[in-house]
């Protein structure tokens, strides 16, 4: 189940030097991948936007292969911005495009996901 997958994914990425992952979901529309120690983030950088670009592409490919369907990934919280964690959303391209567009209009990602039907 999800617990075993979370354990195996965390072990895989941690052993590869990336950091730990916690897997969850929001509104049954997207999966969440959270990490308080993700290697690509730099908490000292003080950026105003998420910065784990390599990870975003890697997760889209990795989890898309596991799911055997194209998936999109969007980083919505980042330790490089001063957040306590990096949070990546994983979902269909259609859902992620909706969330991205709504965030561009100033809507929070949780509200954008709640509007997905």
What proportion of the residues is helical, as a percent range? Answer: 40-55%
Low-pLDDT residue spans: none
How would you sum up the major sheet?
4 strands, antiparallel
Indicate the proportion of strand residues. 15-25%
Number of helices: 4
Q: Using the CA coordinates, give the radius of gyration.
A: 14 Å
Shape: globular
**Cα end-to-end separation:** 25 Å
Average pLDDT across residues? 93
Query: How many distinct beta strands?
Result: 4
Order of helices and strands, N to C? HEEHEEHH
Provide the spatial order of strands within the biggest beta sheet. 1-2-4-3
Indicate the structural class.
alpha+beta
Report what the structure shows.
This protein is an alpha+beta fold and 117 residues long. It is 40% helix and 20% strand. It has a four-stranded antiparallel beta sheet with strand order 1-2-4-3. A hairpin with a 3-residue loop joins β1 and β2. It is globular. The relative contact order is 0.16.
């Amino acid at each position: 189940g999800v617990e075993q997958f979370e354990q195996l994914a965390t072990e895989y990425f941690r052993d590869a030097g990336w950091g730990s992952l916690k897997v969850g979901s929001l509104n049954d529309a997207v999966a969440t991948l959270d990490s308080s120690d993700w290697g690509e983030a730099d908490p000292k950088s003080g950026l105003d936007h998420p910065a784990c670009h390599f990870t975003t592409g890697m997760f889209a490919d990795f989890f898309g292969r596991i799911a055997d369907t194209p998936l999109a990934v969007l980083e919505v919280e980042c330790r490089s911005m001063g957040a306590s964690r990096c949070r990546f959303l994983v979902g269909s391209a259609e859902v992620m495009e909706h969330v991205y567009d709504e965030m561009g209009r100033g809507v929070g990602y949780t509200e954008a996901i709640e509007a997905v039907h």
